[in-house]
Amino acid sequence: MNVLVLGGAGELGSNFANLCVSMGHSVRILDIIRFYEAWRLKELRIEDKVDYVWKASFDVNPDNCIGADLILDCACQADRPLGTLSPKYTLMENLQGPLSLLEVVRYFHKKPFIIYPSSSVEFLGVPREHQPLTEFTIPKPTNLYGFTKWAAEELYLTYHRAFNIPCVIIRTGSCYGPMMRTDQFIAQCIIKCLKDEDVVVKSPQATRTYTFTEDVLEFHKLFLKKFEEDSKKFNGIIISNGGNYEDKPYATIEAANIIQKLIGASNTIIPGEYEVGELLNGRPVFQWEKSEVAYKLLGWKPRHTFEDGLKKTIQWFKEKFI
Length: 322
Hints:
The chain has eleven helices and 15 strands. The chain is an alpha/beta fold and 322 residues long. It has a domain at 2-177 and 212-244 and 289-304: Rossmann fold (3-Layer(aba) Sandwich), CATH 3.40.50.720. Helix 5 (87-105) packs parallel to helix 6 and helix 7 (185-194) runs parallel beside helix 9. The radius of gyration is 19 Å and the shape is globular.
């Protein structure tokens, strides 16, 4: 297949591009990151195996998309706290990019199939008693970032219904692993523990169902194989790939304590304040993900426990940052 990856220099985009290259597909990447600063592509050793276009998804045009069989749109503002500090930017970034792409491909006679990787952050307002979260749970965001992800989902599904644009929504949970963004909590906690620096844990009792990168990539590998066999079964549906082997959500401070123990650090874990949308009616948000559709269609289940994934992630950070 000819695959176009918007945001292909990022964590998900680069790993997806690498997977596609390994499966023999032709890959074009479009990203605002300068090619020589796209370090993940160099880490994966595919910088000379992809066609790289330095460009924002806002300005995607027919020439960028012509010939594409599959498009992964992960060119978004991916930071939840920034959504609170810069709401206008986040709203524009997470909706205008998808709209630009959709307005281009709606006029194609042969329309490419679009994958939109969404986020489980849009479910933080769902009460604990109504969980686990599945593909059939209705989102209830507690922050602007979560709202924009949900709105982008609906935008894609609206164009699917209105203009027959084939698409699938893939919701990825709180993902962590090698090459993850260093501003994310898991990464920051690992770095500080490796340096034996104290860690302030914001939203300490808020929970997440952490998902290891290798499990997410295994999901995408299974998806691509099934997609080549019969793409119609994925058209217009929602699939989630969040979860861990033990099927357990972890409180943020619990995750920090596990990281500290695995590293053998003697630093201090300090409970901090709750971030916007992480404390509702005096109760920390609770997020327990459990995929139903992914197992039914792909036979996918996460293979890594939270600790298994952390050990591999810690080793990568030791090699790269210490």
